[in-house]
Specification:
Number of domains: 2
CATH architecture of the largest domain: 2-Layer Sandwich
Radius of gyration: 18 Å
Order of helices and strands: EHEEEEHEHEEEEE
CATH class of the largest domain: Alpha Beta
Strand content: 35-45%
Number of helices: 3
Largest sheet: 5 strands, antiparallel
Structural class: alpha+beta
Number of strands: 11
CATH superfamily of the largest domain: NusG, N-terminal domain
Helix content: 10-25%
Strand order of the largest sheet: 10-9-8-7-11
């Protein structure tokens, strides 16, 4: 299987989040979760001074650009390239060029895989993020995205939730 790399997509300015949402929806509809692994609009926290008041705000690091972690093939290229709001991949002509690890490091995106000591069917507890202190049984694992899926009771129903490997630990 081909290796997944990070690619940069140029979008209409101001459409970055809309493009991300559209690609995420297409991934779900076409079941491309194993080929297009992650779509990101890199943000950074900036302190603004307006009318004498300091305020923390999140701003896009690269307005007009979206990062996509994907396995490049004809289908994934077509899906991304023909998403509304996308003007094209960054690279010479129509050939997308993947980002190097050195280019990814300043963005805080790590390419190292986390080795885990749990598997499907194991009971885990979430130690970080939105679902902190929630326990559940692993129903699915995605090594490419480095996530586990657990069922959580939400509004009286079992609901599948995806959590990063880094945010969970195995219960003894």
């Amino acid at each position: 299987m081909a290796e997944a790399n990070w690619y940069v997509v140029h979008t209409y300015s101001g459409y970055e989040n809309k493009v991300k949402a559209n690609i995420d929806k297409t991934i779900e509809n076409r079941h491309l979760e194993d080929q297009i692994l992650e779509v990101r609009v890199p943000m950074e926290d900036v302190t603004e001074l307006k009318n004498g008041v300091r305020k923390q705000v999140s701003k896009k690091m690269f307005p007009g650009y979206v990062l996509i972690h994907m396995i490049m093939n004809d289908e994934t290229w077509y899906v991304v390239r023909n998403t509304r709001g996308v003007t094209g991949f960054v690279g010479p002509g129509s050939k997308p060029v993947p980002l190097t690890d050195a280019e990814m490091r300043p963005l805080g995106i790590k390419s190292a895989n986390v080795v885990v000591d749990f598997e499907e069917g194991d009971m885990i507890v979430v130690i970080g993020g939105v679902w902190k202190d929630t326990a559940g049984v692993i129903t699915a694992m995605n090594q490419n995205k480095q996530t586990v899926t657990i069922n959580v009771e939400l509004f009286g129903r079992e609901t599948p939730v995806e959590v990063s490997f880094a945010d969970v630990k195995k219960m003894n």
